[in-house]
Structures are given as structure tokens and as C-alpha cells.
Amino acid sequence: MGTFSIWHWLIVLAVVLLLFGGRGKISSILGDVGKGIKSFKKGISEEEAQNKEDATANANAKVTEDKDKATSS
Questions:
Q1: Region (Disordered) spans which residues (predicted)?
Q2: In order along the chain (73 residues), what is the average pLDDT of each group of 10 residues?
């Protein structure tokens, strides 16, 4: 248990290559993650706005329908 196996060293080597293997790789990866999060939040807020619009339209249609029923009685 005192030494690492080959798999441990391969994982460490992969992490080191990822971190130091090239200029700007980490920042570009994190930039892509940030863009994905922004896009996700924008999609969620647009969906919520659409749901609110639909609910308002349905409520207005129901009020109009109720008024029409009341005037025709």
C-alpha cells in the first residue's frame, strides 16, 4: 500500500498534462462551462416567462368566457 500502482501514475500524468499541457486549455474549458451555465439559465428564464404568459392568457380567456356566459343568461 506504500506505492502507487500504474493506474495511479497514469491518472496523475493525465491531470498534469491537462493542467500544463498547453496554453489556455484550462481557461477555455472553464469558459465553455461558463457559457453552458449562462445558456442554461437563459433557457430556464425564457421558459418561465413563457409559462407566465400562457397562464395570463388562459386567465384572460376564462374571464372573457365567464363574462359572455353572464351576459347571455
A1: 49-73
A2: 82 84 76 93 91 84 70 66
